[in-house]
């Protein structure tokens, strides 16, 4: 598949097929703003403001449109029944270092959705996007994300870096991980 294809839709392949990862559109702004306006979400992400309003979601979606599809891919995680439940993306903040990030709205935690979405996205990154290495990091106090990344096949590099968390307004230890195709 062409590496320039912009974030095509991915169905999760666990047999139940309950999630679709697709390119975000402007109409997603309301759902994103509602779900992201939660310190339990923003406090686990480096650059998400809190509180988080519609203007933040619209600005985020505008930034997504400007991304280079060779290096960055952002998906809305859509549940077939509930609609948009969160976001997932590969962002290249450093050259040749695509980094996986994701969040789900609180009502959708604890149902295996993040593991399912991350696994499908990594399959796509390897098979269709041609990536052999993906990086990730989670704040040391984020047990849920640690579990998601381990289950998706990431390994700890041993590096722990202090990373700014916009919503907490402080630096937080972040444990670095790597995934090899
Ligand atoms: C992290 C997050 C995406 C996890 O999503 P999720 O869909 O609830 O995760 P899953 O249901 O796939 O759970 C994955 C594993 O984590 C475990 N887990 C979930 N919440 C946990 C918690 N609070 N503490 C410890 N383990 C937890 C689950 O039990 C599961 O493991 P298991 O299958 O062996 O039981 C979600 O909590 C979230 O969006 N949090 C806020 C934003 C965030 O942290 N983003 C990631 C930044 S690195």
From TrEMBL:
Keywords: Transferase. Gene3D superfamilies: 3.40.630.30. InterPro entries: Acyl_CoA_acyltransferase, GNAT_dom, N-acetyltransferase. It holds the Pfam family Acetyltransf_3. One of its GO terms (molecular function) is acyltransferase activity, transferring groups other than amino-acyl groups. Residues 19-181 form the N-acetyltransferase domain. SUPFAM superfamilies: Acyl-CoA N-acyltransferases (Nat). This is Acetyltransferase, GNAT family. It comes from Phenylobacterium zucineum (strain HLK1).
């Amino acid at each position: 598949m062409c590496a320039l294809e912009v974030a095509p839709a991915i169905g999760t392949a666990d047999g139940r097929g309950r999630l679709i990862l697709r390119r975000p559109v402007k109409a997603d702004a309301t759902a994103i703003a509602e779900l992201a306006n939660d310190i339990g979400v923003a406090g686990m992400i480096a650059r998400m403001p809190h509180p988080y309003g519609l203007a933040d979601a619209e600005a985020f979606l505008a930034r997504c449109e400007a991304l280079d599809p060779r290096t960055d891919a952002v998906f809305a995680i859509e549940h077939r029944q509930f609609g948009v439940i969160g976001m997932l993306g590969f962002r290249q903040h450093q050259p040749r270092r695509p980094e996986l990030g994701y969040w789900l709205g609180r009502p959708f935690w604890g149902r295996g959705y993040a593991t399912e979405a991350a696994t499908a996205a990594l399959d796509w990154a390897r098979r269709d996007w041609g990536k052999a290495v993906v990086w990730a990091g989670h704040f040391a106090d984020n047990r849920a994300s640690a579990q998601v990344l381990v289950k998706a096949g990431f390994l700890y590099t041993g590096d722990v870096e202090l990373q700014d968390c916009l919503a907490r307004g402080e630096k937080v230890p972040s444990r670095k991980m790597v995934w090899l195709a």
